[in-house]
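#structure-requests
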Amino acid sequence: MATVSGRRRLLQTAAALWELARRLGAPGSLRELGMAEADIGQIVEQVLANPYANPRPVTADGLTRLLRRAWSGAPPAA
């Protein structure tokens, strides 16, 4: 389990990489890469139907929130 300071460093690193990508003009969202918002539900269903090893439980709600944030280009969550 990550310590609080370790989690903080991880989030700071993710935020710094997100900012760098934005400054370099890299696509910042799944929308910019051509994914339709309407496809999120189907993607969630496909992921849940094909489970894989993951250190955290994968749920429909959690995956939907993650994909919506990635689709919209939201920065890494705190």
